[in-house]
Write the structure tokens for this entry.
Amino acid sequence: MELPDSTAPSAAGASRESGCDEHRAPRDLQRALLLIVATLWLLDAVLQIQPSMFAPGPGGLSGMLNSSAGANPGWIAHSITWNASIFYHHPVLTNTLCALVQFSIAFGIVSKRTCRPALALSVAWALGVWWFGEGLGAIFSGGATPLRGGPGGALFYVLLAVLLWPSEGSDRPFVAARSVGPKAAKVLWITAWALLALLAVLGSGRSPRALHDQVVRMSSGQPGWLAAIDRHVALLLLHDGTPLAFSFGVVCVVVAGAILLPPTLTRVALVLAIAVFASIWVATQNFGGILAGGATDPNSGPLVVVLALTYWPLTAARATPNDTAPDSVVVAEAT
Amino acid sequence: MTMTPSWLYYLCAVLTLAVAAYCLISLIVKVCTRRGSGWDIDIAHTFMGVSMAGMSVARWAFGATVMWEIIFAVLLTWFLARTLQSVRHHGVHLSHFLVHAAMSLAMLLMYRFPVRVRGGSPTGPMSLSSAASRLDPGLAFVLVLIFFASAILTLDSSARGASHHTPRGSTPATSASGGPGSPPIRLERRCGRAGGVRGLADAPRLEDASHVLLCVLMGFLLIVMI
């Protein structure tokens, strides 16, 4: 069967207009990472319009919001239940608005004209979700272990919006430095990972029974292969939950400090961080519960991976066209 | 307890039918003007739009399941062949034909593994049938991520009409723009500027919009079916 090469004329035209491949500028890494964030927002938006989200009562979104009030201090819990009551009375209207905001953020980030307003909206929205939807990540109730998504996926959206804020600065030593500068970016990195380390060993984060029960609860409704993984992980946590929590805390501390090390060691630590959080996303976060149906977001796993990528040390050759900083003022690459 | 807002499914069905109608007009224009570029995408989008409308609103469905399975199996084979051809001609790259192969695969899977009844309304896709077998949620999730990434990258692409035509070395439906400051690329069209129906069918932005809409709606249906 001969296939017509219908792409040829267009291909030729495009190549003529855009220039040869060899002369194409390197891809803007900040832009590429923003597009990943936009994809995650689009996923969130579509998850928001699942039929169950429009349902009134405890089976719908209002019930989900109510449950996040949990063991928070009284006034915080009250604000969460107050918000949930609005969703309870107007499930269709409120959920439609939530979805529209998230669609606006996703598509707004893609357009260069609306990227900044969309990111600003994402910060405000994510903070609202963190408070009213995630119950402040269960920090006050002592259940904010990163293994289950603590301190809340929404906070990572805020962090990524700040670190990927479009700017014309240098991409070196890493993309995150472009918007806030290398020093502030390093402070944010160390703070974030120190918080993850702390949350891993505080409260129920180091309790084998609590970790086991959380995984068992999550495994309900998952496909067979994921439920099998959950069973093994639940048993592992039941037997060695505390040592695993402390080991995870040590990994977080190592990753936090690695940003101050030479680029090669930083890369090793980032690969470790990505591998650990990719595993956590599958094994304990269960993809945010999406495969069981009724989830509202993919949890923190992919966001932490994107965060790690924003700190990937770049070689001089990989700098973006915006990179106009002289070599003398940027961190020298060991490579 | 009713869990399904029926307007959501009607909206989904109307949008997919709109995409199908646009792609059908575009296909007719291409045949009339003897243009060879992008006609297979138009055919695929037309079939996908019509069948997704039937999935969204059961009353709007027509044709035997096996007929749709054959159609999407043929489309899957065709786009895989086009992907191989594209790789052979232009070297290793992520062709947008691969995304359309994934879309055909998703359609095929949605017919092969009808959803379980889970308290849906008679208008929703969950009413299609109640089968013991179930589409693996993991595979469905991977496809959803591919479609959403394709939608975002198509919108970001500086090559207008990227979802239907692949310039060499770039991957419009699966890659980001050429870089900051690069001028927008308008893919060369044989019939040039034209008004009326012909102009409408020849609008690269509309081609991209139809692809983006189909990707998002297909992702939505897959998530609902998980």
